[in-house]
What does this fold into?
Amino acid sequence: MSKRMTGWALMILMATFFAVSALAADDASLSKDLTAVIALHGLPCGQVVSVKRQGDNDYIASCQDGNRYRVYVNSEGRVVAQKQ
It folds into this structure.
Protein backbone atom coordinates (compact mmCIF):
# COMPACT_ATOMS: atom_id res chain seq x y z
CA MET A 1 0.00 0.00 0.00
CA SER A 2 1.33 3.46 -0.80
CA LYS A 3 2.26 5.86 1.97
CA ARG A 4 -0.52 8.23 0.92
CA MET A 5 -3.12 5.44 1.06
CA THR A 6 -1.83 4.29 4.45
CA GLY A 7 -1.95 7.87 5.71
CA TRP A 8 -5.58 8.31 4.61
CA ALA A 9 -6.57 4.98 6.13
CA LEU A 10 -4.90 5.92 9.41
CA MET A 11 -6.60 9.34 9.43
CA ILE A 12 -10.01 7.74 8.87
CA LEU A 13 -9.29 5.17 11.53
CA MET A 14 -8.16 7.85 13.99
CA ALA A 15 -11.38 9.80 13.38
CA THR A 16 -13.37 6.65 14.05
CA PHE A 17 -11.25 5.92 17.11
CA PHE A 18 -11.92 9.40 18.56
CA ALA A 19 -15.62 9.25 17.74
CA VAL A 20 -15.97 5.88 19.41
CA SER A 21 -14.24 6.97 22.59
CA ALA A 22 -16.08 10.29 22.72
CA LEU A 23 -19.48 8.65 22.35
CA ALA A 24 -18.65 5.74 24.67
CA ALA A 25 -19.77 3.20 22.10
CA ASP A 26 -20.35 -0.41 23.02
CA ASP A 27 -17.47 -2.86 23.44
CA ALA A 28 -18.10 -4.69 20.17
CA SER A 29 -17.61 -1.56 18.09
CA LEU A 30 -14.53 -0.51 20.09
CA SER A 31 -13.05 -4.01 19.78
CA LYS A 32 -13.42 -3.87 15.99
CA ASP A 33 -11.77 -0.45 15.83
CA LEU A 34 -8.87 -1.54 18.02
CA THR A 35 -8.46 -4.71 15.94
CA ALA A 36 -8.17 -2.51 12.84
CA VAL A 37 -5.63 -0.17 14.50
CA ILE A 38 -3.45 -3.11 15.54
CA ALA A 39 -3.67 -4.65 12.06
CA LEU A 40 -2.73 -1.35 10.39
CA HIS A 41 0.39 -1.28 12.53
CA GLY A 42 1.26 -4.74 11.19
CA LEU A 43 1.09 -6.45 14.57
CA PRO A 44 -0.28 -9.98 15.11
CA CYS A 45 -3.60 -10.14 16.91
CA GLY A 46 -6.40 -11.84 15.00
CA GLN A 47 -9.25 -10.24 16.90
CA VAL A 48 -9.52 -8.14 20.05
CA VAL A 49 -11.51 -10.09 22.64
CA SER A 50 -11.39 -7.68 25.59
CA VAL A 51 -10.65 -4.02 26.17
CA LYS A 52 -9.67 -2.17 29.31
CA ARG A 53 -9.85 1.62 29.24
CA GLN A 54 -6.84 3.34 30.84
CA GLY A 55 -7.88 6.93 30.13
CA ASP A 56 -8.94 9.21 27.31
CA ASN A 57 -7.89 7.53 24.05
CA ASP A 58 -5.80 4.98 25.96
CA TYR A 59 -6.73 1.29 25.97
CA ILE A 60 -5.28 -2.13 26.74
CA ALA A 61 -6.49 -4.59 24.09
CA SER A 62 -6.24 -8.36 24.63
CA CYS A 63 -6.20 -10.44 21.46
CA GLN A 64 -7.51 -13.93 20.81
CA ASP A 65 -3.95 -15.13 20.12
CA GLY A 66 -2.81 -14.06 23.61
CA ASN A 67 -1.03 -10.84 22.65
CA ARG A 68 -1.82 -7.63 24.56
CA TYR A 69 -1.35 -4.12 23.21
CA ARG A 70 -1.62 -0.64 24.60
CA VAL A 71 -3.37 1.50 21.99
CA TYR A 72 -3.20 5.23 22.65
CA VAL A 73 -2.78 8.64 21.08
CA ASN A 74 0.71 10.06 21.70
CA SER A 75 1.62 13.72 22.28
CA GLU A 76 2.02 14.25 18.53
CA GLY A 77 -1.57 13.12 17.91
CA ARG A 78 -0.64 9.77 16.36
CA VAL A 79 -2.29 6.49 17.24
CA VAL A 80 0.25 4.06 18.67
CA ALA A 81 -0.09 0.31 19.28
CA GLN A 82 2.54 -0.93 21.72
CA LYS A 83 3.02 -4.58 22.73
CA GLN A 84 2.62 -5.20 26.45
Summary: The mean pLDDT is 84.
